[in-house]
UniProtKB/TrEMBL annotation:
<dbReference type="Pfam" id="PF00583">
    <property type="entry name" value="Acetyltransf_1"/>
</dbReference>
<keyword id="KW-0808">Transferase</keyword>
<comment type="similarity">
    <text>Belongs to the acetyltransferase family. MAK3 subfamily.</text>
</comment>
<protein>
    <recommendedName>
        <fullName>N-alpha-acetyltransferase 30</fullName>
    </recommendedName>
</protein>
<dbReference type="InterPro" id="IPR044542">
    <property type="entry name" value="NAA30-like"/>
</dbReference>
<feature type="domain" description="N-acetyltransferase">
    <location>
        <begin position="6"/>
        <end position="154"/>
    </location>
</feature>
<dbReference type="InterPro" id="IPR016181">
    <property type="entry name" value="Acyl_CoA_acyltransferase"/>
</dbReference>
<dbReference type="GO" id="GO:0031417">
    <property type="term" value="C:NatC complex"/>
</dbReference>
<keyword id="KW-0012">Acyltransferase</keyword>
<dbReference type="InterPro" id="IPR000182">
    <property type="entry name" value="GNAT_dom"/>
</dbReference>
<dbReference type="GO" id="GO:0004596">
    <property type="term" value="F:protein-N-terminal amino-acid acetyltransferase activity"/>
</dbReference>
Length: 163
């Protein structure tokens, strides 16, 4: 899919790992090992999308799908947009493409965590209909709290699971 000069493409394979790792490491404070990337990308390659501008990688989203209680949960693990390309809806488009894929894969819900101070990410997700589920104290290795965000994808949502 192409929007303006940004092309959105599905992940093709191992040859793209270094490129996406270097973009993510530049922009995210929490370090991930190659094993974390492979855990996501080898099991759910269809849930990774890349955004390119004139052949240069400017955005990436990496997710997984797993059973959670009685439901199938889509989980967004990482999303990053290059600083120079922010505020152009690239992040929102990557999330929307991922949600469409998760619906196709029969996910019942989408969940993710982000640092409680990450206003950009929280607003992006809330604009797309996500709600705040809970605060996770000292969730990150550096001791910061996280917020868990949640989007139901169908009527299977059972509120008492989430109190
Ligand atoms: C979060 C991130 C992916 C957003 O990407 P993006 O392409 O800039 O996002 P979008 O252009 O789609 O923005 C969508 C909405 O998010 C909110 N938003 C994005 N950047 C914002 C900012 N700097 N300040 C306030 N709100 C912001 C706005 O509501 C925006 O809508 P608007 O532009 O119509 O007001 C990007 O800021 C990023 O890579 N941050 C570093 C990595 C990170 O924090 N990832 C999330 C961890 S879970």
């Amino acid at each position: 899919m192409t929007v303006g000069d940004i092309e959105y493409l599905p992940y093709k394979g191992e040859s793209q790992i270094q490129e996406l790792m270097s973009l993510i490491e530049r922009e995210l404070p929490e370090p991930y090992s190659i094993f974390t990337y492979r855990f996501f990308l080898n099991q759910w390659p269809e849930l990774c999308f890349l955004a390119y501008c004139k052949g240069v990688l400017v955005g990436v989203i990496i997710s997984k799908k797993q059973p959670h209680k009685l439901l199938q949960r889509g989980y967004i693990g990482m999303i990053v947009v290059d600083k120079e390309y922010r505020r152009k809806k690239i992040g929102s488009t990557l999330v929307k493409i991922t949600i469409e894929k998760m619906i196709e894969m029969n996910c019942d819900e989408v969940v993710l965590e982000t640092i409680i101070t990450n206003i950009q990410a929280i607003s992006l997700y809330e604009n797309l209909g996500f709600i705040r589920l809970k605060r996770l104290f000292r969730y990150y290795t550096m001791g910061a709290d996280a917020i868990r965000l949640f989007l139901p994808l169908n009527d299977n949502f059972i509120p008492q699971y989430y109190n």
